[in-house]
Amino acid sequence: MLPENLSSVNYVCHVAGSIRGKVSRRHIERNVSVTNWGDCVGEDVAEAALLLILSSLRRSHAFAQLMHVERQWPRPPFGTETLFDRRVGIHGFGSIARKLVTLLRPFRAKVSAFSDGVPDRIFENCEVAQAASLDELFRESEILVELEALTPVTVGQVDERRLRLLRPGATFVNVGRGGLVDEPALTRIAEEGQLRVALDVYAVEPLPASSPLRGKPNVTLFPHCGGPVDAGYTRCGDFALANLERYLRHEPLQAVVDLEVFDRST
User: Domains in the chain, start-ordered, CATH in brackets?
Assistant: First the structure.
Protein backbone atom coordinates (compact mmCIF):
# COMPACT_ATOMS: atom_id res chain seq x y z
CA MET A 1 0.00 0.00 0.00
CA LEU A 2 1.28 3.44 -0.92
CA PRO A 3 1.85 5.42 2.30
CA GLU A 4 -0.68 8.24 2.62
CA ASN A 5 1.92 10.74 3.81
CA LEU A 6 3.85 10.74 0.52
CA SER A 7 2.76 14.19 -0.59
CA SER A 8 5.19 14.10 -3.52
CA VAL A 9 3.29 11.31 -5.29
CA ASN A 10 1.02 12.72 -7.97
CA TYR A 11 0.36 9.73 -10.22
CA VAL A 12 0.11 5.95 -9.80
CA CYS A 13 0.13 4.01 -13.10
CA HIS A 14 -0.97 0.45 -12.33
CA VAL A 15 -0.34 -2.08 -15.10
CA ALA A 16 -2.98 -4.56 -13.91
CA GLY A 17 -6.63 -4.17 -12.88
CA SER A 18 -7.28 -4.12 -9.15
CA ILE A 19 -5.76 -1.13 -7.36
CA ARG A 20 -7.08 -2.04 -3.90
CA GLY A 21 -4.12 -2.76 -1.69
CA LYS A 22 -1.98 -0.45 -3.82
CA VAL A 23 -3.63 2.88 -3.11
CA SER A 24 -6.40 3.90 -0.72
CA ARG A 25 -9.54 5.92 -1.22
CA ARG A 26 -7.78 8.71 0.65
CA HIS A 27 -5.14 9.00 -2.08
CA ILE A 28 -7.83 9.62 -4.69
CA GLU A 29 -9.58 12.10 -2.42
CA ARG A 30 -6.26 13.98 -2.25
CA ASN A 31 -6.23 14.18 -6.08
CA VAL A 32 -3.57 11.56 -6.69
CA SER A 33 -4.17 10.43 -10.29
CA VAL A 34 -4.57 6.66 -10.55
CA THR A 35 -4.96 4.55 -13.69
CA ASN A 36 -5.14 0.81 -14.37
CA TRP A 37 -5.40 -1.41 -17.43
CA GLY A 38 -8.93 -0.22 -18.09
CA ASP A 39 -10.71 -2.38 -20.63
CA CYS A 40 -7.59 -4.04 -22.04
CA VAL A 41 -8.60 -7.54 -20.96
CA GLY A 42 -12.40 -7.27 -20.95
CA GLU A 43 -12.84 -9.30 -24.12
CA ASP A 44 -10.39 -11.94 -22.88
CA VAL A 45 -12.32 -12.49 -19.65
CA ALA A 46 -15.69 -12.51 -21.43
CA GLU A 47 -14.34 -15.09 -23.86
CA ALA A 48 -13.13 -17.22 -20.94
CA ALA A 49 -16.59 -17.01 -19.36
CA LEU A 50 -18.15 -18.24 -22.61
CA LEU A 51 -15.61 -21.07 -22.80
CA LEU A 52 -16.38 -22.15 -19.23
CA ILE A 53 -20.11 -22.13 -19.98
CA LEU A 54 -19.67 -24.28 -23.08
CA SER A 55 -17.10 -26.56 -21.45
CA SER A 56 -19.43 -27.20 -18.55
CA LEU A 57 -22.48 -27.81 -20.72
CA ARG A 58 -20.56 -30.12 -23.09
CA ARG A 59 -18.59 -31.81 -20.26
CA SER A 60 -15.29 -31.32 -22.11
CA HIS A 61 -13.14 -31.80 -19.00
CA ALA A 62 -14.89 -35.08 -18.16
CA PHE A 63 -14.30 -36.34 -21.71
CA ALA A 64 -10.65 -35.28 -21.50
CA GLN A 65 -10.24 -37.36 -18.36
CA LEU A 66 -11.98 -40.37 -19.90
CA MET A 67 -10.16 -40.26 -23.23
CA HIS A 68 -6.67 -39.04 -22.22
CA VAL A 69 -6.21 -40.62 -18.79
CA GLU A 70 -8.59 -43.58 -18.71
CA ARG A 71 -8.37 -44.11 -22.50
CA GLN A 72 -12.07 -44.88 -22.79
CA TRP A 73 -14.53 -44.20 -25.60
CA PRO A 74 -17.64 -42.66 -23.97
CA ARG A 75 -20.97 -43.72 -25.40
CA PRO A 76 -24.34 -41.93 -25.41
CA PRO A 77 -26.21 -40.62 -23.60
CA PHE A 78 -23.37 -38.18 -22.88
CA GLY A 79 -25.19 -35.90 -20.42
CA THR A 80 -24.39 -32.86 -22.54
CA GLU A 81 -26.49 -29.72 -22.99
CA THR A 82 -26.67 -26.75 -25.35
CA LEU A 83 -26.34 -23.01 -24.79
CA PHE A 84 -28.83 -22.12 -27.51
CA ASP A 85 -32.06 -20.54 -26.25
CA ARG A 86 -31.09 -20.87 -22.58
CA ARG A 87 -31.82 -18.43 -19.77
CA VAL A 88 -28.51 -16.88 -18.71
CA GLY A 89 -28.23 -14.69 -15.62
CA ILE A 90 -25.25 -12.42 -14.99
CA HIS A 91 -24.50 -11.18 -11.48
CA GLY A 92 -22.61 -7.93 -11.99
CA PHE A 93 -22.91 -5.68 -15.00
CA GLY A 94 -19.59 -3.99 -15.61
CA SER A 95 -17.74 -3.85 -18.91
CA ILE A 96 -16.83 -7.56 -18.92
CA ALA A 97 -20.44 -8.59 -18.35
CA ARG A 98 -21.55 -6.31 -21.18
CA LYS A 99 -18.98 -7.88 -23.52
CA LEU A 100 -20.23 -11.32 -22.52
CA VAL A 101 -23.75 -10.27 -23.52
CA THR A 102 -22.47 -9.59 -27.04
CA LEU A 103 -20.81 -13.01 -27.20
CA LEU A 104 -24.04 -14.70 -26.07
CA ARG A 105 -26.24 -13.12 -28.76
CA PRO A 106 -25.52 -15.70 -31.51
CA PHE A 107 -26.79 -18.37 -29.11
CA ARG A 108 -30.18 -16.62 -28.80
CA ALA A 109 -29.67 -16.68 -25.04
CA LYS A 110 -32.28 -14.92 -22.94
CA VAL A 111 -30.01 -12.77 -20.78
CA SER A 112 -30.93 -11.05 -17.54
CA ALA A 113 -28.64 -9.38 -15.01
CA PHE A 114 -28.52 -7.87 -11.56
CA SER A 115 -26.07 -5.47 -9.95
CA ASP A 116 -26.77 -2.90 -7.27
CA GLY A 117 -25.85 0.62 -8.27
CA VAL A 118 -25.78 0.13 -12.03
CA PRO A 119 -28.11 2.68 -13.70
CA ASP A 120 -31.21 1.33 -15.43
CA ARG A 121 -30.11 2.91 -18.70
CA ILE A 122 -27.06 0.60 -18.87
CA PHE A 123 -29.30 -2.47 -18.89
CA GLU A 124 -31.63 -0.82 -21.39
CA ASN A 125 -28.80 0.15 -23.73
CA CYS A 126 -27.60 -3.47 -23.75
CA GLU A 127 -31.15 -4.79 -24.20
CA VAL A 128 -30.76 -6.94 -21.12
CA ALA A 129 -33.59 -7.61 -18.68
CA GLN A 130 -32.88 -6.29 -15.19
CA ALA A 131 -33.78 -8.82 -12.49
CA ALA A 132 -35.76 -7.40 -9.59
CA SER A 133 -33.39 -8.98 -7.06
CA LEU A 134 -30.38 -11.25 -6.81
CA ASP A 135 -32.67 -14.02 -5.55
CA GLU A 136 -34.83 -13.68 -8.65
CA LEU A 137 -31.75 -13.82 -10.89
CA PHE A 138 -30.67 -17.12 -9.33
CA ARG A 139 -34.17 -18.53 -9.30
CA GLU A 140 -34.87 -17.82 -12.97
CA SER A 141 -31.47 -18.68 -14.52
CA GLU A 142 -30.47 -21.96 -16.10
CA ILE A 143 -26.90 -20.66 -16.35
CA LEU A 144 -25.59 -18.16 -13.78
CA VAL A 145 -22.37 -16.26 -14.45
CA GLU A 146 -20.70 -14.53 -11.50
CA LEU A 147 -19.05 -11.24 -12.52
CA GLU A 148 -19.80 -8.94 -9.60
CA ALA A 149 -17.05 -6.83 -8.02
CA LEU A 150 -15.77 -7.99 -4.64
CA THR A 151 -16.54 -5.32 -2.05
CA PRO A 152 -17.33 -5.42 1.69
CA VAL A 153 -21.01 -5.61 0.68
CA THR A 154 -20.64 -8.49 -1.81
CA VAL A 155 -18.28 -10.76 0.16
CA GLY A 156 -20.01 -14.13 0.53
CA GLN A 157 -23.14 -12.78 -1.14
CA VAL A 158 -23.56 -16.03 -3.06
CA ASP A 159 -24.35 -18.23 -0.07
CA GLU A 160 -25.87 -21.70 0.19
CA ARG A 161 -29.44 -20.39 0.26
CA ARG A 162 -28.93 -18.52 -3.02
CA LEU A 163 -27.06 -21.37 -4.67
CA ARG A 164 -29.97 -23.67 -3.87
CA LEU A 165 -32.30 -21.29 -5.70
CA LEU A 166 -30.67 -22.55 -8.90
CA ARG A 167 -32.74 -25.35 -10.36
CA PRO A 168 -31.30 -28.91 -10.45
CA GLY A 169 -29.05 -29.29 -13.48
CA ALA A 170 -28.25 -25.57 -13.66
CA THR A 171 -24.75 -24.30 -14.40
CA PHE A 172 -22.84 -21.92 -12.10
CA VAL A 173 -19.80 -20.11 -13.54
CA ASN A 174 -17.49 -17.83 -11.55
CA VAL A 175 -15.03 -15.59 -13.39
CA GLY A 176 -15.43 -12.74 -10.89
CA ARG A 177 -13.81 -13.30 -7.50
CA GLY A 178 -13.67 -16.34 -5.27
CA GLY A 179 -14.63 -14.30 -2.21
CA LEU A 180 -18.09 -13.65 -3.64
CA VAL A 181 -19.07 -17.27 -3.07
CA ASP A 182 -19.43 -19.50 -0.02
CA GLU A 183 -17.04 -22.09 -1.43
CA PRO A 184 -17.76 -24.87 1.10
CA ALA A 185 -21.48 -24.55 0.31
CA LEU A 186 -20.77 -24.61 -3.43
CA THR A 187 -18.65 -27.74 -2.92
CA ARG A 188 -21.42 -29.48 -0.96
CA ILE A 189 -23.99 -28.76 -3.67
CA ALA A 190 -21.59 -29.87 -6.40
CA GLU A 191 -21.01 -33.14 -4.51
CA GLU A 192 -24.76 -33.74 -4.54
CA GLY A 193 -24.58 -33.72 -8.35
CA GLN A 194 -27.36 -31.15 -8.66
CA LEU A 195 -25.23 -28.41 -10.20
CA ARG A 196 -22.70 -28.01 -12.98
CA VAL A 197 -19.88 -25.80 -11.73
CA ALA A 198 -17.17 -23.99 -13.73
CA LEU A 199 -14.62 -21.87 -11.88
CA ASP A 200 -11.68 -19.63 -12.74
CA VAL A 201 -11.39 -18.02 -9.28
CA TYR A 202 -11.28 -19.42 -5.76
CA ALA A 203 -11.37 -18.45 -2.11
CA VAL A 204 -7.72 -19.52 -1.80
CA GLU A 205 -5.34 -19.34 -4.75
CA PRO A 206 -3.60 -21.43 -5.91
CA LEU A 207 -6.38 -23.94 -5.31
CA PRO A 208 -5.01 -26.46 -2.78
CA ALA A 209 -4.23 -29.90 -4.20
CA SER A 210 -6.48 -31.36 -1.51
CA SER A 211 -9.49 -29.21 -2.46
CA PRO A 212 -12.68 -31.29 -2.67
CA LEU A 213 -13.56 -29.32 -5.80
CA ARG A 214 -10.94 -31.33 -7.67
CA GLY A 215 -11.72 -34.59 -9.44
CA LYS A 216 -15.46 -34.13 -9.85
CA PRO A 217 -17.03 -34.86 -13.27
CA ASN A 218 -19.47 -31.96 -12.91
CA VAL A 219 -16.82 -29.37 -11.94
CA THR A 220 -14.69 -27.58 -14.54
CA LEU A 221 -11.61 -25.82 -13.15
CA PHE A 222 -9.40 -23.11 -14.69
CA PRO A 223 -6.26 -21.79 -12.89
CA HIS A 224 -7.35 -18.11 -12.76
CA CYS A 225 -6.33 -17.66 -16.38
CA GLY A 226 -9.42 -15.84 -17.65
CA GLY A 227 -7.46 -12.80 -18.70
CA PRO A 228 -5.28 -11.62 -20.14
CA VAL A 229 -4.13 -14.23 -22.63
CA ASP A 230 -0.35 -14.42 -23.08
CA ALA A 231 -0.24 -11.75 -25.78
CA GLY A 232 -2.41 -9.52 -23.63
CA TYR A 233 0.40 -8.76 -21.18
CA THR A 234 2.24 -6.82 -23.88
CA ARG A 235 -1.00 -5.01 -24.71
CA CYS A 236 -1.45 -4.03 -21.06
CA GLY A 237 2.15 -2.85 -20.81
CA ASP A 238 1.80 -0.73 -23.94
CA PHE A 239 -1.37 0.81 -22.51
CA ALA A 240 0.43 1.72 -19.28
CA LEU A 241 3.40 3.20 -21.15
CA ALA A 242 1.04 5.28 -23.28
CA ASN A 243 -0.57 6.62 -20.11
CA LEU A 244 2.85 7.55 -18.71
CA GLU A 245 3.60 9.45 -21.90
CA ARG A 246 0.25 11.26 -21.64
CA TYR A 247 1.04 12.20 -18.04
CA LEU A 248 4.44 13.60 -18.98
CA ARG A 249 2.84 15.59 -21.82
CA HIS A 250 0.09 16.83 -19.47
CA GLU A 251 -2.57 15.15 -21.60
CA PRO A 252 -5.77 13.48 -20.31
CA LEU A 253 -5.18 9.99 -18.93
CA GLN A 254 -7.15 6.91 -19.92
CA ALA A 255 -8.72 4.35 -17.55
CA VAL A 256 -8.70 6.77 -14.65
CA VAL A 257 -9.71 5.27 -11.31
CA ASP A 258 -11.89 7.95 -9.70
CA LEU A 259 -13.86 7.57 -6.48
CA GLU A 260 -16.83 5.94 -8.22
CA VAL A 261 -14.60 3.39 -9.95
CA PHE A 262 -12.64 2.76 -6.74
CA ASP A 263 -15.79 2.11 -4.71
CA ARG A 264 -17.02 -0.49 -7.24
CA SER A 265 -13.65 -2.06 -7.83
CA THR A 266 -12.52 -5.47 -6.60
Answer: 11-40+229-264 (3.40.50.720), 42-221 (3.40.50.720)
